[in-house]
Amino acid sequence: MRKFFLALSFLMALLPAANAAELPVYHLTIQNGRFYPETLEVKAGERFKIIISNKGPGAEEFESTELRKEKVLAPGVTSFLVFAPLKPGAYRFFGEFHPDTAQGRIVAK
């Protein structure tokens, strides 16, 4: 019985990784106080992941009040955010350390 529970625990540990690997992935770079690309087009109604890389010399933040997402990245750091399915529309995001230039949007179609 103990072997069964160990095997079950092992399989359950693999499930989140398998689900995350199947998500559509979009890449976003922060550099010189700007997001590249400024617009990400995603499929409406589908979970997805954005991998964010900060290539700039200072910290920057990905923030979207509409989507309730926020992540601060130190220089040279790459991280990710997973998003719930979005309804069709445009969703604004920005960088709080460069609010005048670090602007972008996610467009769900």
What attributes characterize this protein structure?
109 residues; alpha/beta; Immunoglobulin-like; globular; 9 strands; 45% strand; 4-stranded mixed sheet; 3-stranded mixed sheet
- Tally of extended strands? 9
Main pleated-sheet profile: 4 strands, mixed
If classified by CATH, what would the architecture be? Sandwich
- At the fourth level of CATH, the homologous superfamily is Cupredoxins -  blue copper proteins
Structural class determined from secondary elements: alpha/beta
Radius of gyration from CA coordinates: 17 Å
Helix residue percentage: 10-25%
Strand content: 35-45%
What's the number of structural domains?
1
List the helices and strands and how they pair.
Blueprint: H1 2-21, E1 25-31, E2 34-36, E3 39-42, E4 48-54, E5 60-64, E6 69-73, E7 78-83, E8 89-94, E9 103-108
Parallel strand pairs: 1-4, 3-9
Antiparallel strand pairs: 1-2, 4-7, 5-6, 8-9
